[in-house]
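Exam revision sheet. Question 4 asks you to relate a sequence to its structure. Input first:
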Amino acid sequence: MSATDASFAERIEALRARRSEIEALLGQPGAWDDPDRSAQLGRELSEISEQIGRWDAMATLRQSLEEAEQLAADGSDPELAELAREESARLAAALKAAEGEWRSLVLPADRRENHDVIMEIRAGTGGDEAALFAADLLRMYSRFAERSGWRYEVLELAENQIGGVREGILSVKGRGTFHHLRHESGVHRVQRVPETEAQGRIHTSTATVAVLAEPGEVEIVIRPEELRIETHRASGAGGQHVNKTDSAIRIVHLPTGMVVTCQDERSQHKNRDKAMRVLRARLFEQAASAQQEATASARKSQVGSGDRSERIRTYNFPQGRVTDHRIGLTLYRLADVLDGDLTELADALNQAEEEAAVQ
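Answer key, structure tokens:
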């Protein structure tokens, strides 16, 4: 067994353990009372079962191939040996095809492709207007999720006094979420007259978006000794979210220095779970990005770097247009786009990446 196969075998054992754990969770009383949680576990169980099933099918093919090769090498019965050689050739081809399908399943070109998404939206330059624009983007992605039949949840929301968003973290779950949202990472720019502008001058403000794939627990393992977990009382603009217990959570990942805070829930346990989800997503993104940086072909196929410092799109209110600077696409449907109609943009970006990949 090669080192790669040995690594896969270890992964399969971890997946078998996770499958048993999920089956036990779904078998507990009240397990189906939370539809979102049970649906998430059900989808994870389906994906894990597919990987295990394909691995076991490969193991069966390998065993059959070994038996056929042994018969082919036995010269005591020439006719049987000839049949065994034909069977060996068939099994070898089937095994090669199965191994290719297996690697495509567990090692796609972008390892994040089959995952759900966590989006981090932050106000950039522009003060209160930037925070209001960040709130518009948060609503835009929420509406896109609704239009696409996905489930979404606001994991963290830091607002200012006038309803703007300093930082919003959104979880989006459903088939194809990362595929359709992956190109949203970067700087989004808005040009409009702020409500607070008395003289009607157009201002330019920005907000940043980071799209992170949300990994399963077996993909990113975080040891307890790698964490420093602090609790404090939640606070918010205008007294919102303030409570009298230390329910807010701050988690520091010591090896990387990453810091995640969560305070929206009144339960310390729920805030910790949400913070851990965000931390896993950030660590997974770090690993996936490093993998792509090391692969020249992957870099060639990207539409833009995906870096949150790159200006990717402008929303111009006076002209009612949206321009994506990476592919030079301009749509004069600003209101529709801000209402979550992102399909045309997402499809055009994916098509551009696919075309770049084969050049």
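Marking note for examiners. Residues 117-359 form a domain with the Alpha-Beta Plaits fold (CATH 3.30.70.1660).
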